[in-house]
Structures are given as structure tokens and as C-alpha cells.
């Protein structure tokens, strides 16, 4: 019997950190087993597809970045489809299904996907499959896996309808179509039983696949432990037959070279804009030694650069992985002696990966240590596809079984608890599963790009020309059962070590004027804010809420406002409110010079609270910024509603920004004497008008 030609659909992905691309590749890999062919492209490659003439179904996987923006790779596409001159039937011919990725910790959940979805609908496009919105806060796979499972039936139905629309409804074609549909249904039933059990690549015969699978799923002898852990499972997982992902095809080849040379410049790793190498000229510890968190203020000298910023902007720092962790990884890989050797990274000949190419963040030629230090996020939480690939590198039967469980459907809860929520990284896995010996090429295939870290600017170029300040807490990750060693944040840990001579200068590092002579430099690039800026009209009042290091951008706001007041004595300036909170007044009150802004009139109202300080007062003082907001309800409502002021929130999303939002809703509801639903609508309108603005992180 002649095999039916595989039916095509267009598969587009828009990714910021690689997750959307990895999911699109999973769809591409599964498509073949369903008799379908995915024509896969990054959504930015608009020269390789054309939605204006596309007849086949389109599948879009798109992430969200920042506080709700489409990823950088989708910006041109979004700008194109948002052209207001496009007619409402522009995409009337288009059938699509969309999977959005996001994090519900942020206010505009999956807004990248929602934006594209909404606009395609406005232009007449039709869903052939319901939109999926996956939440990284609880685990993308909870939505992604079932969404992909249901995609195949929907695709085949869409393709069948497409055939009928094209007029293929003669008697012969009808019979052919019927047979094709029956074949597809039979194929789908088989795939649901077999496809996810595959342990070999697509070229493996089904009989071999099932045989291999049945060998692998025999549970290891039950251990005495009754509680599951990273390395140990309990029933029912330990006794289950497992549905595990298909093995991702290998596509990278690494060759060691005898020649010498220079590593690429760090600027070549960044596509977002111009990078600047600038010296760190000052470092101040803002918290006392006994504070729970260590907050540092750093000053950068940007005087000799073209770096420009406004108060409220953010900028990114290109940071390396921890040196000792890189050395440890080289040791485990058996490559300690080769760290300084140059390697050539290229696509493996004959790979089955569609459109395989060397990852853009990996230089074609550099030292091995450069790749592990500056290019790969070795702290990344391993995705299930990576775990699946690690199975093949593991010799111990029990360890192999546990890795299979962790990447399986049956082990989804264990994966979430012991890997995702525990912040387990590759090094932790290699220590927990010592018989696992992955190749360097496998790491390059599966570890994502080492991302630059973003920080809010805490200064004004008007107030301090040629200088840029920023503030951060040194992030600490305590040890846990799944991760027996404590670690500092990749960037904040590096920065704190880098500026140690500035914080604790030795006699040798201090010049004759008593100042540190450190000339450490870091590479930065600007990330301008779309809206988190001072009101264009200085007479408009505004409220700032920034507990902890969330106060950082507001120092820049106040510095800028002070300078404007000095330069323009005839201008009218609106009132300014700042709500600040920290744990202890004497340990982590980061900017006590706020009083100076209050005294010179730059800051009209300063409200502070200290959540861990004890009080002997009859009425306990407010502990958190949302509590002080409620005490100032009438003034807050007046600024927002009567005077059309602005409201800025900066800081922790999970433990503060949502509570502040709830407090504002309560204030609006009470002061307007309306129900909470109406108050929530008003807050939504303030957000839409860019008068309620957020700069938050999780």
C-alpha cells in the first residue's frame, strides 16, 4: 500500500530564554509519528514564511518577557500585525492554534501570547484549536503536555476541512478521504500508546522501541526509605510503567584544537544593543552586618561612553558563572586539563534535528572554559528533555530508572518538587547521579544561554553626570535536601566578590589620597523602560511604593526632581509621596538621606515602616507598605482620582506588589463607596493609561 504523503503545518516560535523554542522542537519531533510535517521557524524569520498567503494550519508557541512584553524575537512581527491600516479580514484565510508561556507571578500573565492571539482574531484569523496558557509559576508542563496531546487531532481535523474546502469532494476523493481519516484515527490511538514510550530516535523500529521500553521500566528493588527524594522514588511512581519523552536528536559536535588564539569579546554574545565596558568606582554596603540580607550600592563611571539613561530605566550586566562551579563541572566531565584548550563547535553531520544550527550564544571557536563561564547557564533548572538525554549517559540501573521517572508523566510531581521548586541545577544532578557522564556536546545542546542580569538604575544623570548607581541584595540560596550546598546568585555573588576590595580596602589597594585604586570593569548595556519614568508634566503628583531595594529607581526620581527644582524655580511641581519599608530601622534602612529630600522640599511626604522591630506603643505601628497606604487612603485616592496622579510600585512581586494592588483596590472601593469589582476596573484603567506602573521581580 502506498504511504500517504505527510501533511504540512507551519510551526512558529518566539522565545526569550529558549523555552518556547524547546517546546516547538518537541512538537516538531512528535509530528512525524502522527503523519504530519512541521515547517518550523523562529517568528523573526519573516523571509521564510508568509502568513498573508499561508493556506496550511499555523501553530504558534510564544513566551512573555519583562512585565508582559512579547519576546525580543517577536517585536518585528508584533509591530507588523499591529499596523492599524490592516483590514479586519486581513487574516480571514488563516487557521491557527497558539500556546502562550508566562508566569502568573507577574501581573500581565502570558501577555506576549495574548497580544498576538487578540490581534490575529481582530484581523479575521480563526482558531482551529483552543489557545493554551502555560504558567511557569506552577510548571509549564501542566498545560504544555496535554495541549500538545490534543493538538494532533485538531490539526488533522483542520487539514481535513482544508481538503474539503479545496473542492476535493468527488466520490473517489471522498473514499480516499474516509480511508485517510480512519488511518489517522488508528495512527493516533497507536501513538498515544507507543510514541511517548519511545526511547530511541525516530529511526528506531516500533518493535525495538517497545522491547527496549519494557526492559527499562522494570522497577528497581524497593528501598527502605518511605519518603521520596531526588534520587529515590516510592509507589506508585516506583512501580509504574512510564510515559517518557522521545529522545531529542543529537546535533552538536565539538572538536578540540591544538591552535591558540583569543576568545571572542563579550559584546559578541549580546544581540540586544551596544555594550559598554565601564569601571566600578565605588561600592557601599547599605545594610548592617547583622541584617538578614546584604544590600550593596555600586557606582559605575560612564563618563567616557555613549551610555544614556533616564531615571526609571534598567540596564543589564553581562556576568560569568561562578569560577569554582565551572572548575567542578570540568572535573566531573573529565576535562580539567582541557579548560584552556580551544574548541570548534559545529553541527553534527547527518543529524536528524530539523534546521539544526550552532546556537547563537555559542562561539564557533573559543576555549572550553570560555563557553562554560560566559555562554551557558550552568545553574539552569534542567528541563525534562535534558533529563531524558541524561538517561542515555547513565550506567547505573537504579539511577537510570530514577532519571526516567523524573522526566516522565508519572513523575511530574516529583520533578516539580525535587528539581523545579528545589532549584536543582546540572551540577546537583551530576553529584546525585554519579554514574551519569554527559558529553560536552550534550551540555551545549541542552543548557540555555547565560542571560545578562537586569537592574534598576538608582541615580539621575542630571544630578550626577557621568555616574550610574544601582542597588541590589546579594542573593542567597540556602542548602536543601535536593541541593546540599548553599550558593549565591550568579551575578550578585560575582559582583560582591568583584567589589570586595572597594568594600574592605587593604593597605596595598589604597592610594595616597585614601581612596581605593581598584579598576575592576564590567560590561553593561541599557534596557530602556517603556513607561516607568517620571510624569512628563512636573506639576502632576505621584506616589512611589518601594520597600527594600525596591526603593532603588525612586532615588533616581528624587535626585532628578531635586535638580529640576534647582534649575527651574518658576516651574510648578506636584507633590511627591514615598512609601518605604524594611525589616529593622537600624539594620536595613537603606537610604536614611531620604530625610534630606524631605527637608529641601523635593519629597513632600515620607512614610516608613519596619516589619520586624518591636513596639511598646498601645496601637501597633503599621508593619508593611500596604498597611501605611491604607492609613493614607483619602490622600491616595485624591492623588489618583481627583488630581490624575501617577502610582509607581517597585520590588518583590510575590510578597509585596500583589498586596499593594489589593490595598489600592480597597482604598478605591472605600473612598468611592463602590464595590471591589468596580474598584478593580478603575485600577485596570489606571494601568491601561500608564498611570499605575510596575517594576517588579519574583
Automatic annotation (TrEMBL):
It holds the Pfam family Flavodoxin_1. It is found in: Cytoplasm. It catalyses: 2 cob(II)alamin + A + 2 H2O + 2 H(+) = 2 aquacob(III)alamin + AH2. Residues 9-152 form the Flavodoxin-like domain. One of its GO terms (biological process) is folic acid metabolic process. InterPro entries: CysJ-like_FAD-binding, FAD-bd_FR_type, Flavdoxin-like, Flavodoxin/NO_synth, Flavoprot_Pyr_Nucl_cyt_Rdtase, Flavoprotein-like_sf, FNR_nucleotide-bd, NADPH_Cyt_P450_Rdtase_alpha. PROSITE patterns: FAD_FR (PS51384), FLAVODOXIN_LIKE (PS50902). Forms a multiprotein complex with MMACHC, MMADHC and MTR. This is Methionine synthase reductase. It comes from Cettia cetti. The gene is Mtrr.
Amino acid at each position: 500500500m502506498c504511504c500517504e504523503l505527510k501533511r504540512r503545518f507551519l510551526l512558529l516560535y518566539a522565545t526569550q530564554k529558549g523555552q518556547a523554542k524547546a517546546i516547538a522542537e518537541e512538537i516538531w519531533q512528535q509530528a512525524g509519528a502522527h503523519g504530519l510535517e512541521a515547517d518550523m521557524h523562529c517568528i523573526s524569520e519573516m523571509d521564510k514564511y508568509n502568513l498573508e498567503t499561508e493556506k496550511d494550519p499555523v501553530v504558534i508557541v510564544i513566551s512573555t518577557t519583562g512585565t508582559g512584553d512579547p519576546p525580543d524575537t517577536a517585536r518585528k512581527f508584533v509591530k507588523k500585525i499591529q499596523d492599524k491600516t490592516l483590514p479586519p479580514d486581513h487574516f480571514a484565510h488563516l487557521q491557527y492554534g497558539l500556546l502562550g508561556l508566562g508566569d502568573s507571578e507577574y501581573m500581565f500573565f502570558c501577555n506576549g501570547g495574548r497580544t498576538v492571539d487578540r490581534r490575529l482574531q481582530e484581523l479575521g484569523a480563526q482558531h482551529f484549536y483552543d489557545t493554551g496558557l502555560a504558567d511557569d509559576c506552577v510548571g509549564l508542563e501542566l498545560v504544555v503536555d496535554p495541549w500538545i496531546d490534543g493538538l494532533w487531532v485538531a490539526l488533522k481535523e483542520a487539514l481535513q476541512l482544508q481538503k474539503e474546502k479545496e473542492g476535493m469532494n468527488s466520490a473517489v476523493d471522498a473514499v480516499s478521504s474516509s480511508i485517510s481519516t480512519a488511518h489517522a484515527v488508528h495512527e493516533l490511538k497507536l501513538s498515544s500508546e507507543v510514541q511517548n514510550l519511545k526511547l530511541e530516535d525516530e529511526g528506531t523500529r516500533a518493535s525495538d522501541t517497545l522491547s527496549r521500553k519494557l526492559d527499562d521500566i522494570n522497577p528497581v528493588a524497593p528501598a527502605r526509605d518511605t519518603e521520596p527524594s531526588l534520587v529515590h522514588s516510592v509507589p506508585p511512581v516506583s512501580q509504574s510503567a512510564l510515559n517518557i519523552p522521545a529522545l531529542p536528536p543529537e546535533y552538536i559536535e565539538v572538536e578540540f584544537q591544538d591552535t591558540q588564539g583569543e576568545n571572542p569579546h563579550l559584546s559578541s554574545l549580546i544581540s540586544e544593543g551596544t555594550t559598554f565596558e565601564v569601571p566600578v568606582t565605588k561600592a557601599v554596603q547599605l545594610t548592617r552586618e547583622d541584617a538578614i540580607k546584604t544590600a550593596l550600592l555600586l557606582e559605575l563611571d560612564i563618563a567616557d561612553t555613549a551610555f544614556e539613561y533616564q531615571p526609571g530605566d534598567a540596564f543589564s550586566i553581562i556576568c560569568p558563572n561562578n569560577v569554582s562551579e565551572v572548575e567542578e563541572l570540568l572535573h566531573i566531565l573529565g576535562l580539567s586539563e582541557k579548560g584552556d584548550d580551544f574548541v570548534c563547535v559545529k553541527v553534527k553531520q547527518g543529524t536528524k534535528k530539523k534546521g539544526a544550527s550552532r546556537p547563537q550564544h555559542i562561539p564557533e571557536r573559543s576555549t572550553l572554559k570560555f563557553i562554560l563561564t560566559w555562554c551557558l547557564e550552568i545553574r539552569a533548572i534542567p528541563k525534562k528533555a535534558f533529563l531524558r538525554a541524561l538517561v542515555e549517559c547513565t550506567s547505573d540501573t537504579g539511577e537510570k530508572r530514577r532519571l526516567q521517572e523524573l522526566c516522565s508523566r508519572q513523575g511530574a510531581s516529583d520533578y516539580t518538587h525535587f528539581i523545579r521548586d528545589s532549584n536543582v541545577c546540572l551540577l546537583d544532578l551530576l553529584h546525585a547521579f554519579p554514574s551519569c557522564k554527559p558529553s560536552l556536546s550534550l551540555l551545549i545542546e541542552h543548557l540555555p544561554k547565560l542571560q545578562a542580569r537586569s537592574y534598576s538604575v538608582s541615580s539621575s544623570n542630571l544630578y550626577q553626570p557621568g555616574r550610574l548607581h544601582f542597588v541590589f541584595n546579594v542573593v542567597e540560596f540556602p542548602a536543601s535536601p535536593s541541593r546540599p550546598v548553599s550558593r549565591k546568585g550568579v551575578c550578585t555573588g560575582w559582583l560582591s566578590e568583584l567589589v570586595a576590595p572597594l568594600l574592605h580596602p587593604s593597605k596595598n589597594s589604597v592610594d595616597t589620597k585614601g581612596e581605593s585604586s581598584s579598576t575592576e570593569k564590567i560590561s553593561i548595556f541599557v534596557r530602556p523602560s517603556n513607561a516607568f519614568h517620571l510624569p512628563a508634566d512636573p506639576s502632576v503628583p505621584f506616589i512611589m511604593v518601594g520597600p527594600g531595594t525596591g526603593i532603588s529607581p525612586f532615588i533616581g526620581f528624587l535626585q532628578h526632581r531635586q535638580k529640576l527644582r534647582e534649575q527651574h524655580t518658576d516651574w510648578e511641581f506636584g507633590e511627591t509621596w514615598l512609601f518605604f519599608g524594611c525589616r529593622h530601622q537600624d539594620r536595613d534602612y537603606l537610604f536614611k538621606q531620604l530625610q534630606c529630600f524631605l527637608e529641601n522640599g523635593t519629597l513632600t511626604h515620607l512614610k516608613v515602616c519596619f516589619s520586624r522591630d518591636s513596639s511598646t506603643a498601645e496601637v501597633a505601628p503599621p508593619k508593611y507598605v500596604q498597611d501605611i497606604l491604607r492609613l493614607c487612603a483619602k490622600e491616595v485616592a485624591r492623588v489618583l482620582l481627583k488630581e490624575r496622579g501617577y502610582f509607581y510600585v517597585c520590588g518583590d512581586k510575590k510578597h509585596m506588589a500583589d498586596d499593594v494592588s489589593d490595598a489600592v483596590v480597597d482604598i478605591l472601593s472605600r473612598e468611592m463607596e463602590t464595590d471591589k469589582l468596580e474598584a478593580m476596573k478603575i485600577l485596570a484603567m489606571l494601568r491601561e493609561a500608564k498611570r499605575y506602573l510596575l517594576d517588579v521581580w519574583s
